[in-house]
Structure of Polysaccharide deacetylase:
Amino acid sequence: MRHSCFSKILLILVLFINAFGNEKTAVCFYYDHSPPEEMFYLCDYLVVDPSHNIEKKGHSKLLAYVSLEEGESYRDYFKDIKDEWVIGKNIHWKTVILDLRNEEYQKFLIKRVFNRLKDYDGFFLDTLDSYQIALKDKRSKAEYQDALVGFIKRLKNLYPDKEIIINRGFEIVKRVEDTVDAVAVESLFYGLDPGSMDYRPVPEKDRRWILEKLSSIKLPVIVIDYLPPKEKKKALEISKKIQEKGFIPWIIDKDLKTFGTSYFQFIPRKVLILYDGKAVKKEYSAAHRLGSLVFEYLGYIPVLWDINRGLPDGYTVDRYAGIVVWLQSQTVENYQDFYRWVRKKIDEGNRLVFVESFGFPLEEKYLRPLGIDIFKNRSGMFDNEKIIYKEDIFDFEAELSLEYSDLLLYPEKGRPLIKVENSKGQIYSPASITPWGGYILNGAFLKTDIEDLWVVNPFKFFKKALRLRDIPAPDTTTENGRRILFVHIDGDGFMERTEWEREKFASEIIKEKIIKIFRIPHTVSVIEGEIAPYGLYPDLSHKLEDIARQIFRLDNVEAASHSFSHPFKWEKLYDGKQNRDYSLPIKNYTFDLKREIIGSVDYINRRLLPENKKVKVFQWTGDCMPPAEAVRLTYEAGLLNINGGDTKATKKEPYLVYVSPMGIDKDGYFQVYSAMQNENIYTDEWKGPFYGYQNVIQTFELTEKPRRLKPINIYYHFYSGSKIASLKALQKVYRYALSQEVTPLYTSEWIKRVLDFRKIALGFDGKNWIVSGDGDLRTLRFDRPVDINIKESSGVVGYRKEKNRTYIHLDGSGRYLISEGKPEFPYIRDFNGIVKGFIKDKKKMKITLKSYIPAELTVYKPESCDLRIKNRDDYIVERDGYFRYIFTEKGEIIIEGDCR
């Protein structure tokens, strides 16, 4: 393959290693300058044009594209190519053909090209046949082939650890089989017409010629065929044909701009949500506050896009599972450009949903091309109308109460979700599914007069309208079949005196009555400006720092920072607005972002922590709305971050608007929200009642049923230890949480699962799911009961079916194959800890587990298999269909199994 212009990039992803636990190999080609991030996860080798700065990420090794025999004018070194090296021209690609027989040119390649590629994991060598255009006699061709073979071997000697893939080069393949790693060839079943560049089937005689050439090649062979990107079904059929020939398949569009088809097809998880940033800030937009949670639960990644920054260009079908237009205004600026973009996206095959408005005028010339009939409402505003049809997805949190509109809509094709007849006999539909997606308007979506309440069931509506697949949804609420429990404490009130014993500090009470009693993982933060000698309480500092050291020495505590001066208004301070109400009034201090984050972490590491601990987490303060620069600093410092969001649903207000999403993206850096709100919210900002935090139990319950939307997060401040009522409420919350089937984790571990949620990539081969991520998120969820074939799957240690859901437990390797079917192998049904290691073949297995509390483990064991606990005897076994092991201590558990 080759480059056709400067704006394009060649990517080849080659999976020669059996990373997903099967015998198949994934090879992908991609020509755009910005590859979908998922490609870095679903494939092992990624070949890029070194003129683009592609950041290394995921599991991919990076290989650099190099055109050996042709000079491309857009290369930065093209101006230094000497005339005497040029032996011809390729008029189709407007390049010059270069003489590899020339020693000086070879040295030029090594020095100016390959020496700059030392950080790559290998090279993809293109244009190996170009010399045949310029050289006609056999002797010259033979000399050139000798030079080509010699140069490839020279390259391998210079870089013995680099992978090398060549494109074609049939004449010399035999001579470099011990040097290169794979061979690529194009158009076995479907290719491109050389003149028109239209798609066409490959003539039988051409296919026979290629197969004859390939028959003697012992290296892995990559076959690239070409089909329009919409023809997914045919692409998978061609992929299977290529695999049947023993080759590695890649079926792609002619411009190589989409994530094509390998032995699997990529399943996008991102949903593009357009909002109007001029009308509302992203944090406050309904698209974020309401929409993000819905898509996250369904297993999809919300990508919020301010329409004022322009519109995403290029092909988007392979990037996004759907597009949601969620605008505050009926008509946006430059609505004609926006309308053209909408039409283009629909023509490409994207699914679009319009909520509340279209963003362009409700006029026939705009709606008729979308297949929507529009007509004037002849009825009056106060005339009666009746709903003659309504699907059961309405009246979710608020009853359907339609708003009057001068203009009425009805889909020419598709399915109305609501049909209404007005007093004049006109029938219209304010909510419909259309061939390209759908729309929902006029009060059928949200009721906003008092609070934002869902009229439609958003989980069902968006799934219907966008035709979202039933994917194995990455799930951050559950680990090994049990709901995740994590605790984090903000440093506020560390120095507060208790109301019943004035010489005691609240921090001492939390240490003695909570952390040392409830021996689950705790993430504990302090505010430097409150406890340091130069802070607000210098006379108390010696005692406060000593208490902090005692807490951080506990084996169930990890360290976090809650800043230096506890900013209350992050963005105002960042904008230079100094005010005593914006942070703690620390003497002689002017707000500094690095001092708040990096400085406070350094202080805790240096003065408060034992040698074996370092600060892992930064917990946002005040309004928890840091600027993007602040979030970036945490990432650059290697810190995880948390806090923000507004999850506080109670029986009084049991609505989704009070359940926040996982977090918010800030210029490419993700701020992670706490899973629940803290006691400050439940006590009316600490004005009372001080027992109010016990109501978080209602939040735990409402985010468990009917859907498990959140883990259990016990989140509070040290000042909860200062009052009897608040301390008793806190103890009640802990007892409730531990009475549930939970898997306790550290906050840092949960944050990593949230971040991994946004990275996990999915593929589907027609039968099995291919899943790849960083390995931090350990659960996938099907919203249906399903059995998992443990023997044929890879990286799956078990699963649990409950409440018409199936939770699949992953081993943390980061790369998984999910195969449905009877398990036929031992597996974990549920466990209150984490998986540390998992090895299996068709007959044997070994699982290493770790629990932070006395372990409870439920295992399925077929009659044909034996299981052994290798390193523990502190347990009893109960049998009730499953084997249930109850241990008396926490720690590591090693299980071995053999199957006949």
